[in-house]
């Protein structure tokens, strides 16, 4: 077996699938874009749901609805990574995209907060599985030595989806109602799912050896790799960093419009600031990947968390005119790509046969942060102190993320840190 073919099989592809590798990046990018649309849509429709007279929502109750969806994402992330390592990337990706698209469409027909929350939980099971599988695929089929940029470019899809959600929300919700946001977010899956089935490389059996003659077979329990052979301390550090990173992502995407309204901005301006935040996220991802490829994932990730700390704290200062938009843009540049650099670091830190599991578990544990972020924002709003103390709280979270990354060991089990 040649080195190239061996690499393809070890990565989860099947013999003869190399010609489809060029499809992996754009298809995974599209799936992540749909995930981004669906995860951010709740922040866009929340002001309308709070104004829905028959639902009787307040910020605390809305936080429970948000938490239900994020619990589904947590379970999905914890399950999909090991499934992808054990049963194959392609079939796991298809299952997750179909599941979240169909169930998200159902949210448009919810008649109250209980049915809406149940559908968000079920949709979250599929949503949580997309990211670990997509990151594993692009790292396995991308150019060697470009793990940082491969992952950050993939994650621009998330924020393009988020920007599309914000733009559609500004025009669609006042004219047609919040329900149409879920309808429009599900339609692209009608095209994407057949393309995933047709063009993603076929899955190989999970028991194929990971190396040459005499190499150990891929474990039937890839999660075990995360806690053995000296990996446990780094795994814990990654889990903490992911918790902090996703707390920031979901806390800001869910409550930034409401926090800005509490600061005195109108609804239109608050939604525009959410749009600017996610535009900054896309710009940050394009820069972060190149920086990480040049200086290494560890220093880049620490630096990005530190910069996020500074710019989040600055948002607590009320700025006139365009100043607030510049501040929000710069916060977006560093906040969101900090978390993505954590995923890129994980994908380079663990062996290939446990890669999706490592990303999935970190993403799943990180979803506890994703739950905490909206709950924290809701409590601060309920107490009437979300502005300015919410931004100071988020800045402290970013600082803790930097400390966690510093605690990742440079080498585990004799495997040097990949740069």
The neighbouring-strand order within the major sheet is 1-2
The CATH topology, please? Growth Hormone, Chain: A
Instruction: Determine the mean pLDDT.
Output: 82
CATH superfamily: MFS general substrate transporter like domains
Decide which structural class fits the backbone.
Answer: mainly alpha
Determine the number of helices (DSSP H or I, runs of at least 4 residues): 14
Provide the helix percentage: over 70%
What characteristic shape results from the CA principal axes? globular
Identify the CATH architecture. Up-down Bundle
H-E string: HHHHHHHHHHHHHHEE
Number of separate domains: 1
What is the CATH class designation? Mainly Alpha
Annotation, overall tally of beta strands: 2
Runs with pLDDT <50, length 5+? Answer: 1-17, 205-218, 412-419
Amino- and carboxy-terminal Cα gap: 28 Å
The portion of residues forming beta strands comes to under 5%
Q: Please summarize the sheet with the most strands.
A: 2 strands, antiparallel
Keywords: Membrane, Transmembrane, Transmembrane helix
Transmembrane segments: 27-50, 62-81, 93-112, 118-138, 150-172, 178-197, 236-256, 262-288, 295-316, 322-346, 358-381, 387-408
Region (Disordered): 1-21
Protein name: MFS family permease
